[in-house]
Design a protein that fits this description.
Layout (H helix, E strand, L loop, with lengths): L31 H12 L5 H8 L3 H10 L1 H11 L1 H14 L3 H11 L1 H4 L18 H12 L3 H7 L1
Length: about 160
């Protein structure tokens, strides 16, 4: 009877794998600190996930796997993505003193009720207003001008 030889090395399920814990190495074997640095650099300029992954030369799935493993990185990523917006706000505020027209545009957007040039049309919501409909406004204009052409056109 022949003796069976014992196989050496990794068990069959681990044979040929790079990572003894199973699966691929994180970042496909790239330097961890370098990949994280590139990701953070890209996120700090407002890059999307795919753009950051391209810059760091990793797959999007590798990023998502890492975020699942380290939720604090996900929070850091979201904070980094806010940097360009904060920088833009700073520049806007700096520019207010130099350009009064720009200041007004800023106020028109930030305090619409007070400064906006946009006028809200109620379309029949305000019955107290004699111009609550276009036909009433046209009739009023015609009466003032003594012109009946608009009235004739609206009745056709």
């Amino acid at each position: 009877m022949e003796k069976k030889k014992k196989r050496g090395g990794n068990p069959p399920s681990q044979k040929g794998r790079k990572n003894p814990n199973g699966g691929r190495k994180q970042w496909d074997g790239k330097d961890h600190a370098e990949v994280l640095g590139k990701l953070e650099q890209a996120f700090a300029i407002g890059a999307s996930d795919l753009e950051a992954c391209s810059f760091a030369d990793i797959s999007a799935q590798a990023l998502y796997d890492y975020q699942n493993k380290d939720p604090s990185f996900l929070l850091r990523k979201e904070k980094l993505k806010q940097r360009p917006i904060l920088k833009a706000r700073q520049e806007v505020v700096k520019g207010l003193s130099d350009n009064p027209e720009f200041s007004l545009k800023y106020l028109e957007r930030k305090r619409k009720k007070e400064f906006s040039t946009y006028q809200r049309h109620l379309h029949g919501e305000d019955q107290e207003n004699p111009f609550h409909s276009l036909s009433n406004a046209a009739k009023s204009l015609n009466t003032e001008a003594g012109d009946s052409t608009v009235e004739e056109q609206s009745s056709e």
